[in-house]
Write a structure and sequence with these properties.
The chain is built from twelve helices and 18 strands. By secondary structure, the protein is of the alpha/beta class. The chain folds into two domains: 177 residues, Quinone Oxidoreductase, Chain A, domain 1 (Alpha-Beta Complex); 130 residues, Rossmann fold, CATH 3.40.50.720. Strands 3, 5, 6, 9, 10, 17 and 18 form a seven-stranded mixed sheet that branches. The structure holds zinc ion (2 copies). One zinc ion (ZN) binds next to α2.
Protein backbone atom coordinates (compact mmCIF):
# COMPACT_ATOMS: atom_id res chain seq x y z
CA UNK A 1 0.00 0.00 0.00
CA UNK A 2 1.42 3.39 -1.00
CA UNK A 3 1.69 6.27 1.41
CA UNK A 4 -1.80 7.29 2.45
CA UNK A 5 -2.70 10.92 3.13
CA UNK A 6 -2.77 12.11 6.77
CA UNK A 7 -5.64 14.52 6.24
CA UNK A 8 -8.08 15.46 3.56
CA UNK A 9 -10.74 18.03 2.82
CA UNK A 10 -14.41 17.09 2.87
CA UNK A 11 -17.65 19.05 2.62
CA UNK A 12 -20.06 18.60 5.54
CA UNK A 13 -23.72 19.53 5.50
CA UNK A 14 -24.59 21.34 8.73
CA UNK A 15 -28.20 22.44 8.12
CA UNK A 16 -30.44 24.20 5.60
CA UNK A 17 -28.23 25.89 2.98
CA UNK A 18 -25.18 25.51 5.18
CA UNK A 19 -22.11 23.49 4.32
CA UNK A 20 -18.59 23.63 5.67
CA UNK A 21 -15.35 22.54 4.05
CA UNK A 22 -13.45 20.75 6.80
CA UNK A 23 -9.95 19.36 6.95
CA UNK A 24 -10.23 16.06 8.78
CA UNK A 25 -7.89 13.14 9.44
CA UNK A 26 -7.85 10.80 6.45
CA UNK A 27 -9.42 7.47 7.38
CA UNK A 28 -7.39 4.25 7.44
CA UNK A 29 -9.14 1.22 5.95
CA UNK A 30 -9.68 -1.68 8.35
CA UNK A 31 -10.27 -5.30 7.35
CA UNK A 32 -12.42 -5.52 4.22
CA UNK A 33 -12.62 -1.75 3.80
CA UNK A 34 -11.33 0.40 0.95
CA UNK A 35 -9.94 3.89 0.77
CA UNK A 36 -10.96 5.54 -2.50
CA UNK A 37 -9.49 8.76 -3.85
CA UNK A 38 -12.46 10.56 -5.37
CA UNK A 39 -11.65 11.79 -8.86
CA UNK A 40 -15.11 13.06 -9.76
CA UNK A 41 -18.38 13.60 -7.92
CA UNK A 42 -21.65 14.84 -9.36
CA UNK A 43 -24.32 17.09 -7.91
CA UNK A 44 -27.84 15.70 -7.94
CA UNK A 45 -31.40 16.92 -7.53
CA UNK A 46 -31.50 14.99 -4.27
CA UNK A 47 -28.46 16.92 -3.02
CA UNK A 48 -30.23 20.15 -3.90
CA UNK A 49 -33.32 19.04 -1.97
CA UNK A 50 -31.22 17.86 0.98
CA UNK A 51 -29.27 21.14 0.99
CA UNK A 52 -32.47 23.22 0.92
CA UNK A 53 -34.11 21.15 3.68
CA UNK A 54 -30.95 20.65 5.76
CA UNK A 55 -30.84 16.86 5.76
CA UNK A 56 -32.81 13.79 4.74
CA UNK A 57 -34.76 11.52 7.11
CA UNK A 58 -33.37 8.35 5.52
CA UNK A 59 -30.21 9.23 3.71
CA UNK A 60 -28.33 11.97 5.51
CA UNK A 61 -28.24 13.16 9.09
CA UNK A 62 -26.56 16.46 9.89
CA UNK A 63 -23.88 17.38 10.56
CA UNK A 64 -22.37 14.83 8.21
CA UNK A 65 -20.33 14.29 5.04
CA UNK A 66 -22.23 15.38 1.92
CA UNK A 67 -22.50 14.13 -1.67
CA UNK A 68 -23.38 10.68 -2.97
CA UNK A 69 -22.53 10.34 -6.68
CA UNK A 70 -18.89 9.56 -7.24
CA UNK A 71 -16.16 7.64 -9.03
CA UNK A 72 -12.56 7.26 -8.00
CA UNK A 73 -9.48 5.11 -7.58
CA UNK A 74 -8.76 2.52 -4.89
CA UNK A 75 -5.68 3.77 -3.02
CA UNK A 76 -5.89 1.77 0.20
CA UNK A 77 -7.02 -1.72 1.21
CA UNK A 78 -7.69 -3.00 4.71
CA UNK A 79 -6.03 -6.39 5.14
CA UNK A 80 -7.12 -8.99 4.47
CA UNK A 81 -8.56 -7.38 1.36
CA UNK A 82 -11.62 -8.56 -0.51
CA UNK A 83 -10.56 -8.91 -4.12
CA UNK A 84 -10.10 -5.25 -4.97
CA UNK A 85 -6.65 -4.03 -5.93
CA UNK A 86 -4.88 -0.73 -5.57
CA UNK A 87 -5.23 1.51 -8.61
CA UNK A 88 -8.55 0.03 -9.67
CA UNK A 89 -11.12 2.58 -10.90
CA UNK A 90 -14.45 2.18 -9.16
CA UNK A 91 -17.92 3.55 -8.62
CA UNK A 92 -19.23 3.19 -5.07
CA UNK A 93 -23.01 3.26 -4.81
CA UNK A 94 -24.59 5.33 -2.04
CA UNK A 95 -26.37 2.41 -0.43
CA UNK A 96 -25.62 -1.19 0.46
CA UNK A 97 -28.29 -3.81 1.11
CA UNK A 98 -28.06 -6.30 3.99
CA UNK A 99 -28.36 -9.26 1.63
CA UNK A 100 -30.45 -11.39 4.00
CA UNK A 101 -33.86 -9.75 4.56
CA UNK A 102 -36.97 -10.78 2.61
CA UNK A 103 -36.67 -7.82 0.21
CA UNK A 104 -33.01 -8.59 -0.53
CA UNK A 105 -33.75 -12.28 -1.10
CA UNK A 106 -36.42 -11.38 -3.65
CA UNK A 107 -34.11 -9.06 -5.62
CA UNK A 108 -35.71 -5.88 -4.30
CA UNK A 109 -32.63 -4.63 -2.48
CA UNK A 110 -33.85 -1.03 -2.78
CA UNK A 111 -36.50 -1.95 -0.20
CA UNK A 112 -34.01 -3.63 2.15
CA UNK A 113 -35.13 -3.16 5.73
CA UNK A 114 -31.54 -2.53 6.78
CA UNK A 115 -30.32 -0.50 3.81
CA UNK A 116 -27.16 1.39 4.77
CA UNK A 117 -26.41 4.74 3.15
CA UNK A 118 -23.05 6.29 2.35
CA UNK A 119 -22.31 9.96 1.88
CA UNK A 120 -19.06 11.84 1.43
CA UNK A 121 -18.65 12.11 -2.34
CA UNK A 122 -17.71 15.78 -1.87
CA UNK A 123 -14.37 14.96 -0.35
CA UNK A 124 -10.87 14.08 -1.48
CA UNK A 125 -11.10 10.56 -0.06
CA UNK A 126 -13.88 8.19 0.93
CA UNK A 127 -13.67 5.29 3.35
CA UNK A 128 -15.72 2.48 1.87
CA UNK A 129 -17.19 0.31 4.66
CA UNK A 130 -16.90 -3.43 4.29
CA UNK A 131 -20.53 -4.00 3.27
CA UNK A 132 -20.14 -1.38 0.52
CA UNK A 133 -16.82 -2.85 -0.61
CA UNK A 134 -18.46 -6.26 -0.91
CA UNK A 135 -21.87 -5.36 -2.39
CA UNK A 136 -21.89 -1.80 -3.70
CA UNK A 137 -18.53 -1.19 -5.38
CA UNK A 138 -18.28 -1.62 -9.15
CA UNK A 139 -15.26 -1.66 -11.47
CA UNK A 140 -15.31 1.08 -14.11
CA UNK A 141 -14.57 -0.29 -17.59
CA UNK A 142 -11.44 1.14 -19.21
CA UNK A 143 -12.37 3.92 -21.57
CA UNK A 144 -15.23 5.18 -19.43
CA UNK A 145 -14.40 8.63 -18.09
CA UNK A 146 -14.77 8.83 -14.30
CA UNK A 147 -16.87 12.02 -14.42
CA UNK A 148 -19.34 10.14 -16.60
CA UNK A 149 -19.05 7.02 -14.42
CA UNK A 150 -20.24 9.16 -11.48
CA UNK A 151 -23.64 9.22 -13.23
CA UNK A 152 -24.06 5.50 -12.54
CA UNK A 153 -26.11 6.08 -9.39
CA UNK A 154 -28.84 8.36 -10.81
CA UNK A 155 -28.92 6.35 -14.03
CA UNK A 156 -29.40 3.19 -11.97
CA UNK A 157 -32.43 4.84 -10.31
CA UNK A 158 -33.81 5.55 -13.80
CA UNK A 159 -33.19 1.99 -14.99
CA UNK A 160 -34.89 0.68 -11.87
CA UNK A 161 -37.89 2.93 -12.61
CA UNK A 162 -38.06 1.66 -16.18
CA UNK A 163 -37.84 -1.87 -14.82
CA UNK A 164 -41.02 -1.51 -12.80
CA UNK A 165 -42.97 -0.47 -15.93
CA UNK A 166 -44.22 -3.05 -18.38
CA UNK A 167 -43.13 -2.57 -22.00
CA UNK A 168 -44.77 -4.82 -24.54
CA UNK A 169 -43.50 -3.16 -27.72
CA UNK A 170 -42.86 0.33 -29.00
CA UNK A 171 -44.69 2.54 -26.51
CA UNK A 172 -45.64 6.19 -26.39
CA UNK A 173 -44.13 7.72 -23.25
CA UNK A 174 -44.57 11.14 -21.69
CA UNK A 175 -41.89 12.31 -19.28
CA UNK A 176 -42.89 15.18 -17.01
CA UNK A 177 -39.80 17.06 -15.87
CA UNK A 178 -36.58 17.80 -17.74
CA UNK A 179 -34.09 17.71 -14.89
CA UNK A 180 -31.20 15.24 -15.15
CA UNK A 181 -33.50 12.36 -14.14
CA UNK A 182 -36.24 13.16 -16.66
CA UNK A 183 -33.60 13.62 -19.35
CA UNK A 184 -32.06 10.25 -18.53
CA UNK A 185 -35.48 8.64 -18.86
CA UNK A 186 -35.81 10.26 -22.29
CA UNK A 187 -32.33 9.09 -23.30
CA UNK A 188 -32.74 5.47 -22.23
CA UNK A 189 -36.27 5.06 -23.56
CA UNK A 190 -35.43 6.87 -26.81
CA UNK A 191 -32.46 4.53 -27.28
CA UNK A 192 -34.85 1.66 -26.66
CA UNK A 193 -36.98 2.76 -29.61
CA UNK A 194 -39.89 4.27 -27.68
CA UNK A 195 -41.59 7.51 -28.68
CA UNK A 196 -40.80 9.91 -25.86
CA UNK A 197 -42.25 13.37 -25.37
CA UNK A 198 -40.83 15.43 -22.49
CA UNK A 199 -42.28 18.52 -20.86
CA UNK A 200 -40.54 21.13 -18.71
CA UNK A 201 -40.88 24.88 -18.13
CA UNK A 202 -37.25 25.45 -19.22
CA UNK A 203 -36.55 25.78 -22.96
CA UNK A 204 -32.88 24.79 -22.70
CA UNK A 205 -33.83 21.50 -21.09
CA UNK A 206 -36.28 20.81 -23.90
CA UNK A 207 -33.44 21.22 -26.40
CA UNK A 208 -31.33 18.73 -24.44
CA UNK A 209 -34.24 16.28 -24.39
CA UNK A 210 -34.47 16.40 -28.18
CA UNK A 211 -30.73 15.88 -28.53
CA UNK A 212 -30.89 12.87 -26.22
CA UNK A 213 -33.59 11.15 -28.23
CA UNK A 214 -37.03 12.56 -27.36
CA UNK A 215 -39.23 12.77 -30.47
CA UNK A 216 -40.70 15.99 -29.10
CA UNK A 217 -40.42 18.28 -26.09
CA UNK A 218 -42.61 21.18 -25.12
CA UNK A 219 -42.91 23.82 -22.46
CA UNK A 220 -45.32 23.07 -19.62
CA UNK A 221 -45.77 24.16 -16.03
CA UNK A 222 -45.87 21.68 -13.17
CA UNK A 223 -49.12 22.63 -11.55
CA UNK A 224 -51.29 19.94 -13.05
CA UNK A 225 -53.07 22.10 -15.63
CA UNK A 226 -51.20 20.66 -18.56
CA UNK A 227 -52.77 17.24 -18.63
CA UNK A 228 -55.02 18.02 -21.57
CA UNK A 229 -52.15 19.38 -23.64
CA UNK A 230 -49.98 16.45 -22.73
CA UNK A 231 -52.74 14.05 -23.67
CA UNK A 232 -53.31 15.79 -26.98
CA UNK A 233 -49.65 15.54 -27.86
CA UNK A 234 -50.29 11.84 -28.31
CA UNK A 235 -53.46 12.06 -30.36
CA UNK A 236 -56.89 11.30 -29.02
CA UNK A 237 -56.06 8.87 -26.24
CA UNK A 238 -52.92 10.09 -24.47
CA UNK A 239 -49.57 8.45 -23.76
CA UNK A 240 -49.47 4.75 -22.90
CA UNK A 241 -46.92 5.44 -20.17
CA UNK A 242 -46.46 8.65 -18.18
CA UNK A 243 -43.33 9.10 -16.07
CA UNK A 244 -43.43 11.81 -13.45
CA UNK A 245 -39.92 13.07 -12.67
CA UNK A 246 -40.36 16.27 -10.68
CA UNK A 247 -41.46 15.37 -7.17
CA UNK A 248 -44.30 17.92 -7.29
CA UNK A 249 -47.84 16.79 -6.38
CA UNK A 250 -49.27 18.87 -9.26
CA UNK A 251 -47.16 16.87 -11.70
CA UNK A 252 -48.43 13.62 -10.13
CA UNK A 253 -51.95 14.84 -10.86
CA UNK A 254 -50.99 15.74 -14.42
CA UNK A 255 -49.52 12.28 -14.93
CA UNK A 256 -52.64 10.52 -13.66
CA UNK A 257 -54.94 12.74 -15.74
CA UNK A 258 -52.96 12.50 -18.99
CA UNK A 259 -52.39 8.75 -19.29
CA UNK A 260 -54.26 6.73 -21.92
CA UNK A 261 -56.93 4.18 -20.92
CA UNK A 262 -55.20 0.97 -19.91
CA UNK A 263 -51.97 2.90 -19.44
CA UNK A 264 -49.30 3.06 -16.77
CA UNK A 265 -48.13 5.91 -14.55
CA UNK A 266 -44.72 5.82 -12.92
CA UNK A 267 -44.51 8.19 -9.97
CA UNK A 268 -40.77 8.62 -9.73
CA UNK A 269 -40.21 11.99 -8.08
CA UNK A 270 -40.40 11.88 -4.28
CA UNK A 271 -42.67 14.64 -2.95
CA UNK A 272 -42.26 16.46 0.36
CA UNK A 273 -43.66 14.58 3.39
CA UNK A 274 -47.31 15.33 4.12
CA UNK A 275 -48.25 16.35 0.57
CA UNK A 276 -51.24 14.80 -1.22
CA UNK A 277 -52.25 14.44 -4.86
CA UNK A 278 -55.82 14.01 -6.09
CA UNK A 279 -56.85 11.52 -8.73
CA UNK A 280 -59.98 10.82 -10.76
CA UNK A 281 -61.21 7.62 -9.11
CA UNK A 282 -63.54 6.93 -12.03
CA UNK A 283 -60.70 7.00 -14.54
CA UNK A 284 -58.39 4.96 -12.32
CA UNK A 285 -60.97 2.19 -12.04
CA UNK A 286 -62.86 2.13 -15.33
CA UNK A 287 -59.81 2.82 -17.50
CA UNK A 288 -57.64 0.27 -15.63
CA UNK A 289 -54.75 2.62 -14.93
CA UNK A 290 -51.70 1.03 -13.37
CA UNK A 291 -49.90 3.31 -10.93
CA UNK A 292 -46.42 2.42 -9.71
CA UNK A 293 -43.89 4.08 -7.47
CA UNK A 294 -40.15 3.59 -7.86
CA UNK A 295 -37.50 4.36 -5.29
CA UNK A 296 -33.71 4.21 -5.48
CA UNK A 297 -31.80 1.41 -7.21
CA UNK A 298 -30.65 -2.18 -7.00
CA UNK A 299 -27.26 -3.79 -7.67
CA UNK A 300 -28.64 -5.11 -10.98
CA UNK A 301 -29.63 -1.59 -12.00
CA UNK A 302 -26.18 -0.28 -11.05
CA UNK A 303 -24.52 -2.85 -13.29
CA UNK A 304 -26.90 -1.94 -16.10
CA UNK A 305 -26.14 1.76 -15.65
CA UNK A 306 -22.38 1.25 -15.89
CA UNK A 307 -22.84 -0.83 -19.05
CA UNK A 308 -25.06 1.89 -20.56
CA UNK A 309 -22.50 4.59 -19.77
CA UNK A 310 -19.65 2.49 -21.15
CA UNK A 311 -21.63 1.95 -24.35
CA UNK A 312 -21.72 5.73 -24.70
CA UNK A 313 -24.86 5.99 -26.86
CA UNK A 314 -26.46 8.37 -26.31
CA UNK A 315 -23.70 10.37 -24.68
CA UNK A 316 -24.96 11.54 -21.28
CA UNK A 317 -22.03 13.91 -20.73
CA UNK A 318 -24.34 16.62 -22.08
CA UNK A 319 -25.96 16.52 -18.61
CA UNK A 320 -22.69 17.53 -16.93
CA UNK A 321 -22.61 21.17 -17.95
CA UNK A 322 -20.37 22.70 -15.27
CA UNK A 323 -17.27 21.87 -13.22
CA UNK A 324 -16.63 23.18 -9.71
CA UNK A 325 -13.88 22.61 -7.13
CA UNK A 326 -14.69 21.26 -3.66
CA UNK A 327 -14.86 24.72 -2.07
CA UNK A 328 -17.62 25.75 -4.51
CA UNK A 329 -20.18 22.98 -3.88
CA UNK A 330 -22.74 25.51 -2.63
CA UNK A 331 -22.26 27.62 -5.76
CA UNK A 332 -22.93 24.51 -7.83
CA UNK A 333 -26.15 23.78 -5.93
CA UNK A 334 -27.26 27.41 -6.23
CA UNK A 335 -26.64 27.26 -9.99
CA UNK A 336 -28.80 24.13 -10.17
CA UNK A 337 -31.49 25.81 -8.10
CA UNK A 338 -31.51 28.80 -10.46
CA UNK A 339 -31.73 26.38 -13.43
CA UNK A 340 -28.47 27.74 -14.83
CA UNK A 341 -26.98 24.25 -14.97
CA UNK A 342 -28.32 20.69 -15.06
CA UNK A 343 -25.66 18.91 -13.10
CA UNK A 344 -22.13 19.78 -12.00
CA UNK A 345 -19.00 17.72 -11.81
CA UNK A 346 -17.20 18.37 -8.53
CA UNK A 347 -13.44 17.86 -8.79
CA UNK A 348 -12.25 17.20 -5.24
CA UNK A 349 -8.55 16.84 -5.99
CA UNK A 350 -6.58 20.10 -5.80
CA UNK A 351 -4.94 20.87 -9.15
ZN1 LIG B 1 -28.25 11.18 -6.89
ZN1 LIG C 1 -31.91 -6.49 3.12
Amino acid sequence: MGALPRAHRAVYLLGPRTTQLRTVPAPRPAEGELLVRIEAAATCGTDLKVWQRGGHPRMLQVPGPFGHEMAGTVVGLGEPSNGWTEGERVVVANSAPCGTCAACRSGRENLCSGLAYLNGAYGEYLLVPRRFAERSTYAVPSGLDLALAALAEPLACVLHGIGVCHFSGRETVAVIGGGPIGLMFAAVLGAGGHDVVLTDPNARRLAVARRLGAVDAFEASRDGRDAVRLSEAFGATGPEIVIEATGAPGAWETALAAVAPGGQVLLFGGCAPGTVAACDTHKLHYSEITVRGAYHHTPAALRGAIAFLADGVPDLSILLDAVYPLEKVQDALAAMEARRILKATIRPQPR
